[in-house]
Write a structure and sequence with these properties.
32% helix; six-stranded mixed beta sheet
């Protein structure tokens, strides 16, 4: 599996992104669940449509795959994801996204897919923070009280551990979370947790 990890939206490396997309599979599973806490459905819909349009402008065939439709149905989700060439995970609340990934079995599926050479994992903000071994420090950027799947859900501090460091998006950027990103960086430094920062526009590529 290859990775295209952007601080915000597609970022500034779109030509490189195009080269990472599997030539024989232009199907994209767009994962929107980091926004499941939102009650502004109109604003959410506009944001999702904007993301999808950005991907479609690259010549991709995009399908919105809502993990809530697969809670306790991991096999059906795995069947769905096994047919795509790109999994794109949008930003929002990293902890909400992590819970959705657990309830749907996405966290187990993506680890099984790690050895696939014809698959690209892409995304931004929460969609890339989720890949770290730990989500500690990200709580300084995201609201832990948002629990759209039930108030009894416990906070999951373990990330997917698909990479061996944390990522702090929106660092030193014109973004509402930029000040909180500085707090996250200080926390990670203080606790000696490996990390990389990304300014909006910047991208990490792993092949």
């Amino acid at each position: 599996m290859k990775f295209y990890l952007s601080s915000y939206k597609l970022g500034n490396e779109v030509p490189k992104l195009k080269k990472l997309i599997p030539k024989d599979n232009k199907k994209v599973a767009y994962i929107p669940n980091a926004l499941d806490y939102s009650t502004d459905l109109e604003r959410r819909s506009k944001s999702e449509k904007s993301d999808i349009a950005d991907l479609e402008n690259l010549g991709l065939k995009v399908e919105l795959v809502d993990l809530r439709d697969y809670f306790k149905d991991q096999k059906r989700l795995e069947d769905k994801l096994s047919k795509v060439g790109v999994i794109w995970v949008r930003g929002g609340n990293t902890f909400v996204l992590r819970e959705a990934m657990k309830l749907s079995g996405f966290d187990k599926i993506i680890k099984k897919f790690m050895k696939k050479e014809d698959l690209l994992y892409g995304g931004y903000s929460a969609g890339i923070c989720i890949l770290a071994p730990t989500l500690k420090g990200i709580d300084l950027m995201d609201d832990l009280t948002q629990k759209p799947y039930g108030k009894d859900q416990k906070i999951i501090w373990k990330g997917l551990a698909l990479i061996d460091y944390s990522i702090v998006p929106h660092y030193d950027s014109d973004h509402p979370e930029s000040a909180d990103a500085n707090k996250s960086v200080e926390y990670l430094k203080r606790h000696k947790i490996p990390f990389k920062t990304l300014r909006d526009g910047e991208v990490i590529i792993i092949e």
